[in-house]
Amino acid sequence: MLTQAPKGTQDLLPQASYRWQRIEKSMRDICALAGYREIRTPIFEHTELFQRGVGDTTDVVQKEMYTFNDKGNRSVTLKPEGTAGAVRAFIESHLYADTLPCKLYYAACPCFRYEKPQAGRLRQFHQNGIEVFGAKDASVDAEIIALALKVLDANGIDGLRLTINSIGCPTCRKAYLEKLRAYLAPKLPTLCKTCQERFERNPMRILDCKEDADKLTDAPAMLDNLCEDCAGHFEKLQGYLKAMGIEYAIDARIVRGLDYYTKTVFEIITDSPDGTPLTVCGGGRYDGLVEELGGPATPGIGWGMGIERMIMVQDMRGTAPEAPALLDAFVVTLGDEARLEGMKLVNELREKGVKADLDHAARSMKAQFKYAGKIGVKKVIVIAGDELEKGVVKLRDMDESSEAEVARESIVDMLS
User: Fold this and answer.
1) Which of 55, 180, 341, 383 has the fewest CB atoms within 10 Å, measured from its CB?
2) How much of the chain is helix, strand and coil, in % rounded to 5?
3) Distance separating alpha carbons of residues 248 and 31, to the nearest angstrom
């Protein structure tokens, strides 16, 4: 057990870390172009934050959270998603008193859910995410969708389909829920246990049940019961998406799995090689969440994107980026004086931005060349007794198997 990672977790090894760095960099670069700033919240929060924010009727809160009492007998939870912590920070730090909208993002945010591990879904996973506070117009809905599509496209994830829906607001949802319960009541005995439990507390989640979906094809849709404000918002969203050239489909069954959503909800989907749909990004509005958690009434919207799933799709597509070269140059030395000069040269190269190293394992000259070949270095610099006396180094091109003498004083500028 000491040498085995816990079930549902995985190590990020050096040979794969560049893929994560590429994804994180694209997230940062794309968000910066739209005026978003990074936020990092604690890895655990008070349990009540998720009970009130995510919703105690959700599977996340009921079944999947890592909750425990700390040494002060306080109930804390490893965060299962990024939004609740961002809202808590927005309220606690009085960011609502600054200029709004407040546009935030997080990259590779660690999250935890106790569920059955499967491809692209782990118990410890990482999310890129966006949260915007203080923007009520549907233009920001369209903006964050566009940003999500750009992040996915920048990482070789294509064949994307955007589906959107509106699940209304508390005003119009109240009347709709009465219609939905009236429709569901006679069918309840035939539905699964989870759906029966949701009937009173959150009947809209029943529409999201994969087990009973075929039995509910004629269920009333929230889209047909929107109030004037929600209907107008949804129409504006479609107008903005069309103006930006973003194709979309309306899916009245999207409700998302968290209780805080209002109005716009959306998913971005791609297909696995066998045609199975995979959701690679999901999000929506949560206009009442800031107020629910003790802050002033402030509209909000955001999305989350799992990095492990992105990497899985890259592997399926064959679009994983090529690993960068570990080093630009490797210095091979023979003798103590040459080694001192090699250390000096490596330091000069690094100061000029050249990725350089030399042998630290006291290998023979032949073994140093062998090591350089194994790690794929293209330029090898040789320093031995003769080179020291002449004030030169030998520069070997490993691809062309060629070698030339270069003045010691010129080698740094040549390689940088």
Assistant:
1) 341
2) 45, 25, 35
3) 22
